[in-house]
Write the structure tokens for this entry.
Amino acid sequence: MGLAISVFGLGYVGSVTAACFAHMGHRVMGVDVNPLKVEMLDSGRSPIVEAQMNEMVAETNRACRLHATADAASAVCNSEISFVCVGTPSLANGRLDLSHIERVTREIGAALRGKRTHHWVVVRSTLLPGTTESVVVPLLEECSGRRAGADFSVCYNPEFMREGSAVSDFLHPAHTILGSKDPACLVPLRQLYQETSAPLFETSIPVAEMVKYVSNSFHALKVSFANEIGTLCKQMGVDTQAVTNIFASDTRLNISPAYLTPGFAFGGSCLPKDLRALAYKAKQLDLGLPLLSSILPSNLEHIQRAVDMVLATGKKKISLLGLSFKSGTDDLRESPQVLLIKRLLGEGCQVQVWDQDVTLGRLAGANRQYIEEVIPHIGSLLSADLAQVVSEAQVVIIGTKSARSEDLACYLLPNQTVIDLVNLDASRRPSAPAFYEGICWS
Ligand SMILES: NC(=O)c1ccc[n+]([C@@H]2O[C@H](COP(=O)([O-])OP(=O)(O)OC[C@H]3O[C@@H](n4cnc5c(N)ncnc54)[C@H](O)[C@@H]3O)[C@@H](O)[C@H]2O)c1
């Protein structure tokens, strides 16, 4: 026996959600403020133009598993789960317009006032992290006079379908994400999604909300990146298609999770230099490539973030673990750690540096020349004694993964501030200091 489901908002997401759940054998009631959409769905016609929708809506409506109404209260009372799929458009200034969410939440809340059995409210509309817990839950509690978690449950279940292949994306998703405060409330949702073979992630509501934005911004970034690369190729007389085909064939470093872990800025002898060369070439060709041109400024901003974090502690005795741009190498050219030290020295900090891979006497060629130009007295800051470098600091900056966690645990003092730039694995993070902060994670 299927579940009884109400779906609020019969736009792209709501219509597809309603039709697909009905197709999977559940009894679905669609709800919309637009009478035309209600009338269409209730008479077996799809309110949207989308592959497979006409057949699916007609078939499930004939089988009496898909109907629609404008009556929110009866839809809530006659269902166990309400999916919220109303629009969240942009206001003129870019801010998210929550008026539809607020209205539908009030309507569902008012209907819950009279409902005696437990109800699930599942938000599918795209909402900024924190919105479900700070707007939807309080409004539901206010309008229902009941308590979230006890009388009803609220979950966040983002939708990743693409228009044009929405039904197929719904039935065969890449993953299903269920955000909740209490995983125990997810029982009926696990049941609903058990037919899709995709991996199911159970997480907090803000994480589920954020994953949707991260996915969409990454997709947009990829489109713009491909277009800027294509533009550059065309202007330089290079075969765009050949370049992108070969580029995409590398699933180790290019189309992969590589370089997608938040950490410190990039550096070294290649990335900054090569980006500069491309940006300069684009300028020569009079091409506006704002995405490619913004990568180096974004990287510098990240180094500035580290400087600001250190300065915000108000402490001046700083130790940096890791000097080269990557552990396991002594290449200091354009190392962001080197730039960080330079900035901190300029701010009057006393800096000590430990790096097991860097010995000044062994540096040669362009590498030696670089460090001598940027920080001529680097030799007086470098020490091979980790215990001494750590114990004499007020702030310890972890800029390498090569310092052993046992050593850190041994040498760090509880009154020290630890700033992690390299995203140490949680099990390797020091537990002793009173204050640990990641550069872009908490
Ligand atoms: N379109 C997509 O491909 C897509 C994909 C994933 C996520 N999303 C997100 O899903 C949400 C919905 O997107 P959409 O494209 O389906 O929106 P849409 O504008 O096509 O549809 C929204 C529907 O909600 C209805 N509505 C508004 N207030 C209502 C109320 N109080 N009660 C009942 N119905 C109400 C509107 O009449 C409309 O039919 C948005 O947050 C969007 O960002 C969209």
Residues 4 and 79 are 5 Å apart (CA to CA). Residues 8-14, 31-34, 37, 85-88, 100, 103-104, 107, 125-126, 159, 161, 163 surround nicotinamide-adenine-dinucleotide (CB under 6 Å). The chain has a mean pLDDT of 94. The first strand starts at residue 4 and ends at 8.
